[in-house]
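User: structure tokens for BTB/POZ domain,SKP1/BTB/POZ domain,BTB/Kelch-associated, please.
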Amino acid sequence: MQAENRGKMNVNKERFETYSQNASNGWRHLYNNEAGSDVIFLVGDPECWRFPAHVDVLRQYPVFDAMIREPWSKKGTPIHLPNDDPRAFDNVLRFMYKNTVELKSVATALETLALADKYMCVELVHECIVYLTRNLTVGTVLPVYHAARLYGGQTEQRHGQPAAPPPPRVPDVARATAPPLQDLMPVAVDDAQTEAFASMVKHYDTLLEYCGAFVDRNADRVMADESVDEMDGAELAELFRRDGLAVSNELVLFTALERWCTHKCRQQHLELTVRNRRTVLDDAMLLSVRYLQMTANEFLSGPMPSGLLDAQETSVLMKQILNRKQPRWTCQRLTEDVLDYMARPRNKHHHAGGGALSYVIKRRSSSFRGGGDQHGGAGAGCSSPSSEFDSPGSRASGKKSKKNGGKKNKKRCVDGCFCGHLIYFLDVCFG
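Assistant: Done. Predicted tokens:
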């Protein structure tokens, strides 16, 4: 058995060496060349493109090798691929013949990646991922994230590893669904194919990690983009639960969640009612927002009037927001573990609110400069303690600060009373 496996590895190694040598020498001029063509592909529907190809080139790839065998094709009969994108298929053939690819947009790169995954062109998968990582934008990062998550799961399934069922696909990349390899080629997977699967999974994991980091750094702008509406619920919940998601506040995520619910209701021809919005929304998505990181005003302006949370959940969350030091109330869905997650702050290494922070620093630095020498010497911005206490102006400002402090204490007392009355009202109404 081991001798047989070593023999297969040697054959595959010889195939690859032959392919590399022929691609650099004789196959380049055969690209888009009718001379010697013994296979014809009709790609696309309703717009169908015709591609001439050569058996010697196609047999270097296991999926194409199986495709040109019986009963999949008969000699002289064109092979029709209605679900493949013609431009992406042209990129696949170009890479097979010339070992180069020309990608001019993220949309074309996604279509090409879909076919490279389908036909197990590992080197082309790598080229597409390199292009995508270099050309990510706020408007394209979520479709790319979706593709990496989807194709990575399909590759694991084809390799025989357990994987979660793939979610519905984004319309822009939905035409290139890869068929299971065992349906197309019912032979044992050899060591070379196992290595190809492992390499593809590694490429997709890298792309997924890169997309996640991009979303973390640009969370506010990404969540405001319309591409959020096309995301699958499980994918959106996965992004919402990222600890490094640098949103300015949790209300940004809840607003995106509301918009997503409205879009799904319209797609399914449902009335825009609270009940229907809750129907299209599962618990994983709804509870992925960290409500306990909101202020009372944010919760009152967003989640509370939306109706997505029921009355008991609204009461539990509002009481916890108003009294964070008190023991937690719980209910059926808001368990201790869920509330612990909602109370955990995000690690905002690249905080989106940097502009506000720089504004505060600028205000503080200008106030220090205002009290010093106009020439800005080494000690210009500071005054001695004795001069500060001896000046009449400082005594007057001290009296003013006491008055302000009294007003602040009074306001804090009023706020505390209001919070107490609100908690009592929530207890009476919702228990």
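User: Anything notable?

Assistant: The radius of gyration is 31 Å.
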